[in-house]
From TrEMBL:
Record keywords: Antimicrobial, Bacteriolytic enzyme, Glycosidase, Hydrolase
Entry EC number(s): 3.2.1.17
GO cellular component, one term: extracellular region
Protein name, per record: Lysozyme g
Reaction(s) the record says it catalyses: Hydrolysis of (1->4)-beta-linkages between N-acetylmuramic acid and N-acetyl-D-glucosamine residues in a peptidoglycan and between N-acetyl-D-glucosamine residues in chitodextrins
Keyword match Hydrolase: yes
Molecular function per GO: lysozyme activity
GO BP term (any one): killing of cells of another organism
CDD domains listed in its UniProt record: GEWL
Length: 182
């Protein structure tokens, strides 16, 4: 089964998200523009993103969306570090909560970051079994940014995330990357 179909079976049809905030509609264009600006750099990692996504059952476009948001495809990093020296690599794995694995742009790093995302999605699925798969996925994406304990309701899933729009922004960027062959 193709990775996009496997993702939909486990996590829902994230490409057709109806963003949970009408106010985000204005930000959608900004998210897409940021993703577009990162595309050249992101293409340097396309093969490894695809490999990790296929191996772990996560759509590569979603991984690219997180990379764009977290590190601008590496452009926002200083020797691999971001977030005031706490975040490592393309996916900004937080050294305060995880043991850093691999070089900042390596397959090992992408496997670690994607594995962390998958664990957060599974945690949110258990925490909110009544949510749709799409809602659980967005909750998992928000948790990737600020922890699963902070996800309380779907209506306020991004309240407290960086910028107050983390999951919506990541999904908007991921939709752009999906249209660009990720």
């Amino acid at each position: 089964m193709h990775v996009s179909n496997r993702l939909a079976a486990v996590y829902g049809h994230w490409l057709s998200f109806d963003f949970n905030s009408l106010m985000f509609a204005d930000k959608f264009q900004a998210s897409e523009e940021m993703a577009r600006m990162d595309l050249g750099r992101m293409n340097n990692y396309k093969s490894v993103i695809r490999k990790v996504g296929n191996d772990l059952g996560v759509d590569p476009a979603l991984i690219a969306g997180i990379i764009s948001r977290e590190s601008r495809a590496g452009n926002a990093l200083d020797d691999g570090w971001g977030d005031h020296g706490n975040g490592w690599g393309l996916m900004q794995v937080d050294k305060r909560h995880h043991t850093i694995v691999g070089a900042w742009n390596s397959e090992e790093h992408l496997r670690q970051g994607t594995g962390i995302l998958v664990n957060f999605i599974k945690t949110i699925q258990k925490k909110f079994p009544g949510w749709s798969k799409e809602q659980q996925l967005k909750g998992g994406i928000a948790a990737y940014n600020f922890g699963d304990r902070n996800v309380q309701t779907y209506e306020r899933v991004d309240v407290g995330t960086t910028g107050g729009d983390y999951s919506n922004d990541v999904v908007a960027r991921a939709q752009f990357y999906k249209k660009n062959d990720f």
